[in-house]
């Protein structure tokens, strides 16, 4: 079976395994207070061009989202997000389990707009029963979105302007950040990301690491006592250096960006093959997540040898599926899928 179900079906880049083996007998302090975490944080600050940033390493994306959001919100506040946003549909109600509602906005491409967010905030402010409803307390987006689509620099700039206007933080889920930055249609740099939000995280789990995400806090207001939240939410790894070592390797010699380019090149090749076969897409193919609409009988045939996700209900004999390429997608596996198509 050849899998295109996600971008974490493989392990990690070989440099990380080598570094973990090489440093295995080192003795360091725990909980992320060690030379490797310090060096990795320094490399990230240099890459984003923000020496004032606080950098923290957590084990996974859901922990990063829960820890950031819950550390910022007051008990009566909620998170503004797309109805298809990861925190709303793929985290088992983790945000709600902590007492914070997801305030969802409709979308047909995974993105939300500055106008939508402003309207939602204004409706709350001018409601005669505002204190009886959940107050918008943070704006959450992912880059790329759950639909594999990208925010443009203008769209992100406009969103951040609304966030600043109402003094509500903008938080960017960067679980697949590398793939967004490597995409041909992208016009944002990692430095732009760091200057157009209050908090974001750099995904490692889906972009080259065995596990781990790097939370980057830019706004001083949200830096104080963040480590308390990491510990309380179960995200503080005792052997924290294992995270630091991985991000050291990812941010050496621009590896994070180079391995992301591989996934995008594979996705582009697969996109061309699907287009050549005449298949339409549910969402514009922009990153490493592709959503072609295939005949049900073709899907059944492909699933004998390939792993991928069904996305939505079948209609008129067709169904949307999701193919995902990764930092380690093999050329021969990609060619096998294209041949089967």
List descriptors:
341 residues; alpha/beta; seven-stranded mixed sheet; four-stranded antiparallel sheet; 13 strands; 40% helix
The residue ranges in which pLDDT falls below 50 over 5 or more consecutive positions are none
First-to-last CA distance: 15 Å
- Percent of residues in helices comes to 25-40%
Count of strand segments: 13
What is the 3D form? globular
Biggest β-sheet: strands ordered side by side in the sheet: 2-8-7-6-5-3-4
Global mean pLDDT: 97
Sheet of most strands: 7 strands, mixed
Q: In percent terms, what proportion of residues is strand?
A: 15-25%
Structural class: alpha/beta
Topology:
Blueprint: E1 2-3, H1 14-22, H2 35-48, E2 54-58, H3 61-72, E3 77-82, H4 86-89, H5 94-97, E4 102-105, H6 114-125, E5 135-142, H7 153-165, E6 170-173, H8 177-182, H9 190-195, E7 199-203, E8 213-217, H10 226-232, H11 241-250, H12 255-276, E9 289-290, E10 293-295, H13 296-302, E11 306-307, E12 309-310, E13 318-324, H14 331-340
Parallel strand pairs: 1-11, 3-4, 3-5, 5-6, 6-7
Antiparallel strand pairs: 2-8, 7-8, 9-13, 10-13, 12-13
Helix pairs in contact: 1-11, 2-11, 6-7, 12-14
Structure in words:
By secondary structure, the chain is α/β, with parallel strands linked by helices. The model has no long low-confidence stretch (mean pLDDT 97). Helix 1 (14-22) packs across helix 11 (241-250), helix 6 (114-125) runs parallel beside helix 7 (153-165) and helix 12 (255-276) packs parallel to helix 14. Strands 2-8-7-6-5-3-4 form a seven-stranded mixed sheet, sandwiched between helices. The chain is built from 14 helices and 13 strands. It has helices spanning 14-22, 35-48, 61-72, 86-89, 94-97, 114-125, 153-165, 177-182, 190-195, 226-232, 241-250, 255-276, 296-302, 331-340; strands at residues 2-3, 54-58, 77-82, 102-105, 135-142, 170-173, 199-203, 213-217, 289-290, 293-295, 306-307, 309-310, 318-324. Helix 7 links the parallel strand 5 and strand 6.
